[in-house]
Amino acid sequence: MNKPRSGGQRKRRGGGGGIRLVLRDELTRLHIIWRCVVMLLCYSD
């Protein structure tokens, strides 16, 4: 019995999708760090 692979779509196809995911993760990390810095600067007044 052959079962359809539902997780096959998530694997990298080509490489364009992987770059997009990495960029999104980096932007999310930078956004969180930026918000923390702004909050610390505003809170220190």
Beta fraction: under 5%
Sheet of most strands: none
Order of helices and strands: H
Can you tell me the residue ranges where pLDDT is under 50 for at least 5 consecutive residues? none
What count of helical segments does DSSP give? Answer: 1
Radius of gyration, in angstroms, nearest whole number: 19 Å
- End-to-end distance: 67 Å
Helix content: 55-70%
**Secondary structural class:** mainly alpha
Count of beta strands: 0
Instruction: Provide the residue-averaged pLDDT.
Output: 80
Shape: elongated
Tell me what you see in this structure.
With 45 residues, this protein is mainly α. The protein has a domain at 19-44. Helices cover 62% and strands 0% of the residues. It has 1 helix and no strands. It has one helix spanning 16-43. The termini are far apart. The relative contact order is 0.08. The model has no long low-confidence stretch (mean pLDDT 80). It is found in: Cell membrane. Belongs to the DVL/RTFL small polypeptides family. One of its GO terms (biological process) is negative regulation of cell population proliferation. It is a single-pass membrane protein. InterPro entries: DVL.
